[in-house]
Amino acid sequence: MSFARTFLSDRLTGADSEGIGLHVEQLMQAVAPEWPVPETLARVRASNLCFGVPMNWALNDADRQQQVCRTLRYKLGQFEPRISQVHEVQMQEDEAGNMVSFVIRADAKMADGEEGIELETRLSLFDQQVEEDSL
């Protein structure tokens, strides 16, 4: 049983894009320690040990953005079972405001089939979370 299904089941019962957006926001605000877990340990990789998105801000800009987007795409597949396919992850930095914006376009499983959704969230470069009043 996966971490998402076990500990976030109340959030996973709703099939609306708002519930998915809330879960994606929680995933992105949780910092993963990047444990070296091999692919053969699929259940460990889907456990709370690996929940969250590692944000390595020390790489060069282009390399870092590609790595963060690839990691986020993987983590969405691992921890958000309602998303069937991620089409695009875009990342835009606001250096003056020390924030990063993410736009995620994906297909999600809804009550009446699959539906395309677009999610947007912003994170602080300082603490990986943007306060509501700063939006």
Task: Produce the secondary structure layout.
Blueprint: H1 3-7, H2 9-12, H3 17-29, H4 42-45, H5 61-79, E1 83-94, E2 99-110, E3 113-124
Task: Supply database-style keywords.
135 residues, single chain, alpha+beta
Overview of the structural elements:
Helix content is 33%, strand content 27%. The chain is α+β, with helices and mostly antiparallel strands and 135 residues long. The chain has 5 helices and 3 strands, in the order H-H-H-H-H-E-E-E. It has a 3-stranded antiparallel beta sheet, covered by helices on one side.
- Unreliable sequence segments: none
Task: State the assembly state of the protein chains.
Answer: single chain
Report the count of strand segments.
Answer: 3
Overall shape: globular
How much helix, percentage-wise, in residues? Answer: 25-40%
Overall average pLDDT: 76
Please outline the major beta sheet. 3 strands, antiparallel
Instruction: Give the neighbour order of strands across the main sheet.
Output: 1-2-3
What's the end-to-end separation, in Å? 36 Å
- What is the alpha-carbon Rg in Å? 15 Å
